[in-house]
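YM 10:42: DUF2953 domain-containing protein sequence, as discussed on the call
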Amino acid sequence: MAVLLSILKITGIVLLIILLAFLAVVACILFVPVRYQGSGDIEAKKYKARISWMLGLIQFRAEHTDQEELRYGIYILGRRTGILDPGQREKRKDRKEKKQAKKREKEKAKFQKKREKQKSRIILDPEGARERKQEPARKPEAQGQTEASGKQPEQTVGPEMKSTAFEPQEENRVSRVWKICKKVLEIVKDIRDKNLIGLLLPKVKRLFYHIRPRKLKAELTFGFSDPSVTGKVLGGISWLFFLYQYEEFILVPDFETDETYIRGTFQISGHIRIIHLLIFALGILKEKEFRAFIKSLKLN
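YM 10:58: structure's back
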């Protein structure tokens, strides 16, 4: 009895440790913030971005300059991994192709060995081979029937057909992009027509308050060919400025320009907690009107 109780005690302790470890992982995912940073010089076309989690143990870095292409990667404990690296993906693809080639060579060698064994059996038993050769004597008749009917085997698609088939693929790609844009505009219009803006706007404001940039430093000069558009953009951005009081945010509009441009530098940093995104998703899914809207999108 004492042995059974000790076994149950050890099992309970192990299960409790597993449960606590699971809860610790869930708490880290929900409450440990994902920090983001970004900076850029628009005229020099230099941009940097970084997303980090767990005190920088896991990071995503991206950098773009005018002279170089976009570089990005995932870093764990400060060392770059090959998860998103195109070069590493090509190396993995080459290794996979080499393994498949070796596998095909082994299968080919096995097939040749089996064929050699079958040939040796035919040489050892010539009488049986003669009997087997006499059986399929009707095959030429079948060939004659195909020649008499005038049917020919189907031909494979040549290079001319492939080149003509390439143009419809490009047209289909453009049409797919256009359909996606139309679908997004239809969704926005449906949200406005079904009075969902009043339902979603408070929740979106609350979410933006939690994920907003904690630090925003910028010196930007911008202008549009239409002065009214410049005024609308200035009004929208000024609303954020007065709402969150970014003291180092300098915005200079140009109402006299005839071209559309934006110049200057910026720095941005903040953090996001997964728990806030989860609360936002559950809050909008709890509303019947929004669920009915999602169902109507699925039906359409």
